[in-house]
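Field log, afternoon session.

UNIT: design team B
ACTIVITY: writing a sequence onto a fixed backbone
BACKBONE:
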């Protein structure tokens, strides 16, 4: 059995064998055709956009998945990343989020949730589960994504990942800390923060 083969899983469904997600290797799904909702262009002809992760070659990318629209923990994360967007901009890093909801669901959620009305980064609708499968965060039975977060460097290499269970939100400050460390391209000790000495 090799990557790209179609096999039958334990439940009888046919699935494609995907390569493992590994730090230090090319990020998966760079050329998948994706659709996203852009809240900053709400109501415009281009509020729904086609994109590929490879469109961001030459930039750092922070891609984070969340389980579902219209839930409780998820908006706290989306708002936290939105509040930190200037910090990511300072680090020349694009923030993208994705769930298995449709882009229309994303729009409806932002329309109905006061804190999401000002969201400034793209929300990918992974309705066919291709992206969440590629990043190995899909809960096949529930059809939703675990809380995975991934840092992809300007060359398209996956440099860091973390996956939380469904009920546990992430720490945006930790994502920024790791991003800072990676961008030094030096040896950074435990609990290192921007401005502190590296080991080389």
């Amino acid at each position: 059995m090799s990557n790209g083969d179609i096999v039958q899983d334990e439940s009888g469904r046919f699935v494609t064998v995907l390569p493992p997600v590994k730090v230090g290797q090319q990020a998966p799904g760079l050329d998948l055709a994706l659709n996203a909702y852009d809240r900053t262009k709400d109501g415009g002809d281009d509020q729904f956009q086609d994109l590929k992760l490879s469109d961001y070659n030459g930039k750092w990318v922070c891609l984070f998945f969340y389980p579902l629209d219209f839930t409780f923990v998820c908006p706290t994360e989306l708002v936290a990343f939105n509040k930190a967007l200037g910090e990511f901009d300072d680090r020349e890093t694009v923030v993208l989020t994705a769930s298995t909801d449709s882009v229309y669901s994303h729009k409806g959620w932002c329309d109905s949730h006061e804190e999401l009305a000002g969201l400034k980064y793209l929300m990918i609708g992974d309705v066919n589960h291709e992206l969440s499968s590629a990043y190995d965060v899909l809960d096949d039975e529930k059809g939703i994504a675990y809380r995975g977060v991934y840092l992809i460097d300007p060359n398209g290499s996956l440099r860091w990942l973390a996956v939380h269970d469904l009920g546990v939100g992430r720490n945006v400050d930790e994502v920024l800390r790791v991003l800072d460390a990676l961008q030094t391209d030096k040896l950074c000790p435990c609990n290192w923060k921007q401005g502190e000495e590296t080991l080389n």
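LOG NOTE: The domain at 19-169 is CATH 3.40.30.10 (Glutaredoxin).
NEXT ACTIVITY: expression trials, pending approval
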